[in-house]
C-alpha cells in the first residue's frame, strides 16, 4: 500500500469487534514506534501494554471513570498501549527552556503516529486518547519518577466497515498558511 493511501485510510476507531490482536502484531506496531525519529535520537519512548479482558477491565475502571467516562469506549479495545516518556534528556530540558517547546511531546507524537499507521496497515483500528485519569494510569503501570504518560492508544479490529475510512478533512488549499520560495533568475 502506498503511504498516502495508508494516511487516507487511518482514522480514530471507537467501536471494536472484540477480536483479539496477536502479540506479534502489537509488537510490529511497537517496532514501528521504536524506529521513529526523535530529538537528538533520544528515543524517549517506553510502552506498557494492557491486553486481555481482565487487565483491560481493571485498567479501564481505574482510568476512564467519572469525568473521564467519555473515553470509556476504550474498555472494549483488544489492547491499550500506554505511551511512556523519559523527560530528563538535555535536549528536552533545553527545548522547553530555550524554545518553549516540549520536544518530548513531539517525539511521542511522531512515535505514536508510526504505531497507529502500522496498525492500520495490519487492519487494526486505533484511537489516540488524551482524556484519562493520569494519576490512576501512572499507579496502574507503576510509573517511576522522571517518566510521564504521553497518552494512550486503544487498539482493536473495527466493529464495522464504516470505521475503515478517514473522517472529513479540510482541503489542502485551506491549510497552507503561506508559501514562500525563491524565484529563479529566468
What secondary-structure arrangement, pairings included, does this model have?
Blueprint: H1 3-9, H2 23-34, E1 45-51, H3 53-63, E2 79-86, H4 90-99, H5 103-121, E3 125-129, H6 134-141, E4 147-156, H7 172-175
Antiparallel strand pairs: 1-2, 2-4, 3-4
Helix pairs in contact: 2-5
Question: Which features does this protein show?
Answer:
186 residues; NADH Oxidase; alpha+beta; 4-stranded antiparallel sheet
Structure description:
The protein is of the alpha+beta class and 186 residues long. The protein is built from seven helices and four strands; from the N terminus they run ααβαβααβαβα. It has helices at residues 3-9, 23-34, 53-63, 90-99, 103-121, 134-141, 172-175, and strands at residues 45-51, 79-86, 125-129, 147-156. It has a four-stranded antiparallel sheet, sandwiched between helices. α2 (23-34) crosses α5 (103-121).
Amino acid at each position: 500500500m502506498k503511504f498516502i493511501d495508508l494516511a487516507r485510510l487511518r482514522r480514530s476507531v471507537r467501536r471494536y469487534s472484540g477480536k483479539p490482536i496477536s502479540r506479534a502484531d502489537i509488537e510490529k506496531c511497537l517496532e514501528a514506534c521504536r524506529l521513529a525519529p526523535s530529538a537528538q535520537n533520544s528515543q524517549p519512548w517506553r510502552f506498557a501494554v494492557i491486553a486481555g479482558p481482565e487487565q483491560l477491565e481493571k485498567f479501564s475502571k481505574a482510568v476512564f471513570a467519572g469525568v473521564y467516562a467519555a473515553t470509556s469506549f476504550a474498555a472494549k479495545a483488544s489492547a491499550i498501549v500506554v505511551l511512556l516518556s523519559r523527560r530528563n534528556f538535555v535536549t528536552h530540558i533545553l527545548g522547553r527552556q530555550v524554545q518553549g517547546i516540549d520536544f518530548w511531546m513531539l517525539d511521542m507524537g511522531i512515535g505514536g503516529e508510526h504505531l497507529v499507521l502500522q496498525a492500520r496497515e495490519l487492519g487494526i483500528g486505533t484511537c489516540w486518547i488524551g482524556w484519562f485519569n493520569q494519576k490512576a494510569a501512572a499507579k496502574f503501570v507503576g510509573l517511576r519518577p522522571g517518566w510521564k504518560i504521553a497518552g494512550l492508544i486503544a487498539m482493536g479490529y473495527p466493529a464495522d466497515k464504516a470505521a475503515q475510512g478517514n473522517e472529513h478533512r479540510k482541503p489542502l488549499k485551506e491549510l497552507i498558511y503561506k508559501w514562500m520560495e525563491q524565484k529563479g533568475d529566468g
